[in-house]
Design goal:
This protein is α/β, with parallel strands linked by helices. The protein has 3 domains: about 150 residues, 2-Layer Sandwich (Bacterial polysaccharide co-polymerase-like); about 150 residues; about 250 residues, Rossmann fold. Helices cover about 60% and strands about 10% of the residues. Strands 5-12-11-6-10-7-9-8 form an 8-stranded mixed sheet, sandwiched between helices. A hairpin with a 6-residue loop joins β8 and β9. The longest helix is centred in the middle third of the chain and has 92 residues. The relative contact order is 0.10.
């Protein structure tokens, strides 16, 4: 028995892990869907590559090889000056590469070989493209070109075809030239190598000659500068009276002596200041302090303090014997006060003495400081003179040394002018190439093929990512969490033509509409898909008797009415009692097709205005009953009619009479009528148009229709292009759409 997966079971089956098989299947599906894009883009790029091979001229490349010889012999082993050859390193070789490709070398070769008048150089490289550019230029710039313009064009073409590169990490350089003529390629490559060597020789000679001329002038200048420097030393000594004594000048000796005197004066000043600070501190304290005499070392103060202490002892003894008010004790205290005043007066005299000593010591220190500063100033003047003297002596020595060095190098440069040499030499001359170097047919076609595949992959990927429509059953099940019950193919247009025979209000048209294919072509793929839908309805546990199924879609025109009619016809043909209800009160398309002349229908029955037996129509061939929806004028509140108690009672009545109640509902997105049917429809089918229904619109529509989402039996993909569907579904297509199963045996 077929078991339909519940949403909970389907969620369990979904895993975050993606196996290699799934990745391979996804990649294979992508290729299967987009392979026409791959083929088209690859064919286009191959055609462009072939056109490039036809249009582009063939070129030949010749190579000449030179080496930067770092072990060349010097004509004089004693050449060790600024102008001798330095070791050749990697940056030096790179510099030579740029020199080979310079405009000076190019102009030299163009003049020697008279290349400016050749069509290859004067017409943008010649060939089809070059001549086309040249004639295009002449069209906008008529008249004769100047010689400078011709030479500039030839130089530009020459530089584009010339290349030089280093061989690995060696000192070998390959000079390559590309030309339409193999002889010309070899000729120009050898000419460039020779021109480079000649340019090096000429540069060496010119450098040595200019160096010799400059050195000759410079030597005379240095000689005069050395003589002037010696003379300035003698004049400076006599002017500044510079006399050295034991390595030290007189001013330096005076500074040393005055510095010693200043240190002694500062010591005396510090001692006087300390005594002054101490006596000021004593005057602020008690004269009876024991440290006064020891600190000041004054005999007068010491005697007065001794007297003070003796009287204090006697006063204390008398006060203890006779009381503090005794006349003798009072007299002693008066004597103590007089002695204290005497001590204070003596301390004041000592303070004035110490202050005078401090002022004298400070004055002597200042005089020593001024004398030292004057001596230092005189010493600095003398020191500056010594610095200037040393500078003059250093300049004299420098000029003398430079004069001798430049004289020696002048001799060497004269010798180098007679022996100009260069580091480079040709080790392999260019020969006539036997095979063309470009364009390479295999490479161009391979790149065109690879580029076409990459471009096709990019285009296909963008198309795949931007494809937001329903195309596969797996896609439906993954996005909606519902089973895809069937995929119905597109029917021929001829089957959509209605019958023009006049009908009475109680008659229903037969053999009209695409859905009649389930009767006229029972073995067709369409009929097989309708049977799959019926089987799912039969196996649903919620639909055991009076199977009530509502069919809707996300948007109009997706084929829900056709599917509903086909399902009803198939069920009726199988011998079941079936009623098809047109409940799309906004656009009753089934009524317009099957009963265009009906006078009353679902609205009147639901509102109790007419009896069911008076408005129901029956198809004579299959026995299908049809309840139309006759809308004479647009109804604004169709959702209230569907949500009414009369509608629910009508469906309950049909459940007791019919085996299948197939209800054609309005679309989900434009109107809200479907949301009002949840109280009498237990199960829904959602019809989607293959390759047209937008996923975002579908998800939004289901999010707003909770009853449909919770009671959704499955999804039907309608109007599928079976040929294109094979590119989106890799399984089942070999037998599901096999023609042998679409006809009776």
């Amino acid at each position: 028995m077929l078991q339909l997966l519940k949403p909970e079971e389907r969620e369990i089956e979904r895993a975050d892990y993606v196996s290699p098989d799934q990745m391979f299947a996804a990649a294979l599906g992508f290729v299967r869907r987009q392979y026409p894009i791959f083929l088209v883009t690859m064919l286009i790029t191959l055609a462009l590559g072939a056109a490039y091979l036809v249009i582009t001229r063939s070129t030949y490349t010749a190579q000449a090889t030179i080496i930067i010889d770092t072990r060349k012999l010097q004509p004089y082993s004693s050449q060790n000056s600024l102008f001798t050859e330095v070791p050749v390193d990697s940056p030096a070789v790179d510099s030579q590469l740029e020199l080979i490709k310079s405009d000076n070398i190019a102009r030299s070769v163009i003049r020697d070989l008279h290349l400016a008048q050749e069509p290859e150089f004067s017409r943008y490289g010649g060939g089809f493209v070059g001549n086309l550019l040249y004639y295009f230029y002449q069209l906008f710039e008529p008249g004769d070109e100047s010689q400078d313009e011709i030479e500039r064009r030839a130089l530009r073409e020459f530089s584009n075809n010339l290349s030089a590169k280093r061989v690995g990490v060696t000192y070998v350089i390959e000079i390559s030239y590309r030309s339409a003529l193999p002889e010309r390629a070899a000729q120009v490559a050898n000419a460039v190598a020779e021109a480079y060597i000649n340019d090096q020789l000429d540069a060496k000679y010119q450098s040595a000659r200019r160096a010799g001329d400059w050195l000759s002038t410079r030597i005379q200048e240095l000689k005069q500068q050395a003589i002037s420097a010696d003379r300035s030393i003698v004049d400076f000594k006599s002017k500044n009276n510079i006399v050295d004594a034991g390595g030290r000048s007189i001013s330096e000796q005076q500074v040393a002596e005055l510095n010693s005197q200043l240190l002694a004066a500062r010591t005396v000043t510090a001692d006087a200041r300390a005594r002054l600070d101490r006596i000021e501190q004593v005057m602020k304290s008690d004269v009876r302090d024991a440290t006064v005499t020891d600190t000041l070392r004054s005999d007068v103060v010491s005697k007065l303090r001794t007297q003070y202490l003796d009287i204090a002892n006697r006063e204390a003894d008398l006060s203890a014997r006779y009381g503090v008010n005794h006349l003798a004790a009072v007299n002693l205290r008066n004597q103590m006060r007089e002695i204290a005043k005497s001590i204070t007066a003596e301390l004041g005299r000592l303070a004035e003495t110490y202050k005078s000593d401090y002022e004298i010591a400070k004055q002597r220190e200042d005089e020593a400081q001024r004398a030292l500063e004057a001596a230092v100033a005189r010493s600095q003047i003398g020191g500056q003179a010594q610095v200037q003297l040393k500078e003059l002596e250093s300049n004299s020595q420098t000029y003398r040394s430079m004069y001798e060095t430049f004289l020696q190098r002048y001799t060497e440069s004269i010798q180098q002018q007679s022996f100009p040499i260069t580091e480079a030499r040709i080790i392999s001359s260019a020969g006539k190439p036997s095979k063309r170097s470009s364009p390479k047919t295999i490479l161009v076609l391979s790149m065109a093929c690879a580029g076409g595949l990459m471009l096709g992959f990019g285009i296909g990927l963008m198309r795949d990512l931007s494809d937001r429509v329903v195309r596969t059953s797996d896609q439906v099940e993954r996005l909606l969490g519902a089973d895809c019950l069937a995929t119905l193919p597109v029917l021929p247009a001829a089957a959509l033509q209605p019958n023009d025979t006049p009908l009475s209000p109680h008659e229903m048209q037969a053999d009209v509409g695409a859905f009649w294919a389930v009767v006229s072509s029972p073995f067709s793929r369409y009929a097989e898909g309708i049977r799959s839908i019926k089987s799912a309805i039969d196996l649903n546990s919620r639909l055991r008797s009076g199977r009530v199924v509502g069919l809707s879609s996300a948007l109009p025109g997706e084929g829900k009415s056709t599917t509903a009619a086909g399902l009803a016809l198939l069920s009726a043909q199988a011998g079941h009692k079936v009623i098809l209800i047109d409940a799309d009160l906004r656009n009753p398309s089934l009524t317009k097709l099957m009963a265009p002349n009906a006078a009353a229908g679902l609205v009147e029955v639901a509102l109790g205005e007419r009896k069911f037996e008076d408005v129901v129509l029956r198809e004579s061939t299959t026995g299908l009953d049809f309840l139309p929806a006759v809308i004479h004028t647009p109804i604004a509140h169709t959702s209230e009619i569907l949500a009414s108690e009369g509608m629910r009672a009508l469906i309950e009545r049909f459940s007791n009479v019919y085996d299948y109640i197939i209800i054609d509902l309005s679309p989900l997105a434009p109107v809200i009528d479907v949301r009002a049917t949840g109280h009498f429809i237990p199960t829904y089918l959602l019809v989607l148009e293959w390759g047209k229904t937008n996923i975002d619109v579908l998800e939004r529509a289901l999010a707003n229709a909770r009853a449909v989402r919770e009671n959704l039996l499955g999804v039907v993909m309608n109007k599928a292009d079976t040929d294109l569907l094979k590119r989106y579904e890799g399984y089942g297509t070999s037998y599901y759409y096999d023609p042998k199963y679409s006809q009776p045996s």
